[in-house]
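Appendix B. Extra example for self-study. Work through it before the problem class; the solution is given directly after the inputs so you can check yourself.
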Amino acid sequence: MSPSNNTAASKSVPDRTAGAPLDQAATDHVVEVRDLVKTFGKLRALDGVTFSAERGTVLGLLGPNGAGKSTLVRILTTLLRPDSGVARVAGLDVVADGQRLRSLIGLTGQSAAVDELLTGRENLELVGLWYHLPKREYRRRAQETLDLLALADAADRLVKTYSGGMRRRLDIGASLIANPPILFLDEPTTGLDPRSRNELWRLVRERVGAGAAVLLTTQYMEEAEQLADRIVVIDKGTVIADGTADQLKARTGGATLEARVTKPSDLERAVAVLGDLSPTPPRSDAEQRQVSIPAGEGTDLLLDTGRRFQEAGIPLDDLGIRRPTLDEVFLSLTGRSHGDAEPSSAEVAP
Amino acid sequence: MTPALAFRDFVGVAKRNLLRSVRTPGLLLYALQPIMLLLLFRYILAGAIKVPGGTYVDFVVPAIFLVSVLVGAMTSAIGMAEDLESGLIDRFRSLPMARSAVLTGRSLTDAIRSVVVLAIMVVLGVAVGFRFDSDTGRIALGMVLILAFGYAFCWMNAAIGIAVKDPESATNAGTGPTFLLLFASNAIVPISTLPGWLQGFARNQPLSVTVSAVRALFEGGNAAHDVWLSLAWSAGIAIAFFVISYSLYKRAAAT
Ligand SMILES: Nc1ncnc2c1ncn2[C@@H]1O[C@H](COP(=O)(O)OP(=O)(O)OP(=O)(O)O)[C@@H](O)[C@H]1O
Ligand SMILES: [Mg+2]
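Solution. Structure tokens for the complete assembly:
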């Protein structure tokens, strides 16, 4: 046997301990996406998406069905290869550095990825093992995560006996178990009851407080508003708005004050009453017997209006301040309501 | 990724699959089919099939041993397809675990299942009148050939499962090649009773070669040539389908 002259160049790839803080000081952008394109056959699911997210913040990806949110998340979590463009997470290219990147991210995908034939605890412990946590560590973290997500009582039951919300929570737990510094949550609160949803929001804030970055997709303006430091609105594979919740709302005109008169004949008078309170002419809707004006800072205006209607002797069915809904954000951003979104319409877009 | 970490990932996958298989009735069902075949050939068809120089029990039971691990191997296709369909593969692929672990972990589970099924079949085979006429070393080698062939088929079925991505199609797609090889072979009837145009294929295809080797090892006779040939087939099939599975797996969710 000839002696091996094979100078085993042991290029030790540093296997990051998950949970370690991001030390890529150079990259303030935890997520950086530039001109990202992904096509499925003729469909351009992502058609040149550009945005970035900073560490210690929550980025909300808002968009209607088929907008490309999940496609984007799947590319950023190395599950899909982009056709062109750049996608970097934690300074690592999602295609070239996928393996190193995967120890830094946690993913809860849109559809549950939990093993029905394992218990909740087994599910979490295995994920911990695959994050390469030491055994003692993943056992401890699994128990903590079960407690955190109110699954401790069901921990040793097979997941197939879990309710939908319990599965969802377990699925979220799987992405939290190794405390990864970057979390991707694809519509995490779908199917959760209000209490679990609030719990999850609290959890997300806590992780962000500890320095993590979170990218979450949602179809709910409220969720984006509650959680996201910045919101990127995408539609038909392109970014149509990017800013804070307030900035987005400002673009849609902000909150409105709406008054609905009891008698249709009072509509004219109601317009006159509100006209005094608003720099712009009130909008009236005869069919709804409703008059509305932009409402800047809420309550004073509301009280004032109430008083004036009383003084004028105009009976009202309803009076209130309404925040813009996602529908309205969409209406103003795209010129159509988000229910009309058609995934395939990306093909006919100019 | 160090080999030690990759090994740990692989053990994790194997553990998961084992936990799954003891919690599904699947394992029992897959033992049931070979048992039915054993009884069918032993008690119903044995009278109708004549084999030269020996009893039909000794002729057919070694082949039934092989069939039992092949039928077990079909669960590989179903298991892979189930994982792909349920979205679990997406989770695996988003974790820093070794890419190969999902596949190699499954194949270890498959191998363990094959050993269990084979042990059951040997006990039952002897119970219905099969007798080894050989020494321990040759018997052990025969078992190794059966398990190796089954293992190779696990890789074939894993590739099928990844390719079709749906448990029901996987069941059907996995059945095809296995039963084709089984019926166009020397497993159930002597080659000489098959139609002439089929004999050339039937004599040289891998399942027949393996059956010949195993029969010779269990019942006496010159086995060396078929043993090597069978091992070569098993190695070739396993390697080819490992490569195919691996590249299909990498691409599975990437489109
Ligand atoms: N694997 C695929 N093959 C073909 N088309 C796909 C595939 N994945 C996504 N698409 C298409 O790409 C478009 C974007 O899908 P995506 O899942 O990213 O939307 P989304 O914004 O997550 O929608 P939702 O709110 O419904 O989850 C859709 O038109 C969808 O049909
Ligand atoms: Mg989606």
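Self-check: Chain A has eleven helices and 14 strands. If your reasoning did not lead you there, revisit section 3.
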